[in-house]
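Weekly puzzle thread! Below is a chain. First person to post its structure in token form gets bragging rights.
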Amino acid sequence: MIETLISSKTRIKLLLKFFLNSSTKSYLRGLESEFGESSNSIRLELNRLEKAGMLSSSSEGNKKIFQANKKHPLFYEVHNIVLKHIGFDKIIENVVERLGDVDKVFVSGAFAKGLDSTIIDLVFIGQVNKIYLIELIDKVEKLISRKVRYVIFDKEEEHLIESKMHPLLLWSNEKVEKI
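Winning reply:
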């Protein structure tokens, strides 16, 4: 979907990296090894996104560190486009809200680090109807063409995920700011 609007695969990777998890920071050489691409193509796209105000940068030693500019007027729109590209909107819409007593849903793994993947790792907190969850995940996987793995924790076990999985909050029944 997004490939028809944005022809640069490097730019798409950068948008996923920085706008999926807005607290993600990275530098040129780190992105080069992560993406497996030349530093020139990455540098060009970083410069374009920074010039457009979509990315901000700071210096740490001899490294120029990039991060999504949350103050940019289009930040939330780009963030939502990235979520839709991955299919998180379908997961939330079709799975979370009809599962029972769900407190929170986190994404972990590659997506929590701002990386694209064919597998989406979800962590549910609360009492979840597992049979219904499996049925819905089957439907969602067909819609988004990605595999969905999940784990369910009780509310009392939520503290276990913080240190081990480095999750990113996708949905909460509390009135808190999402991602």
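Puzzle host: Confirmed. Bonus trivia for everyone else. The chain has two domains: 2-76, 87-172.
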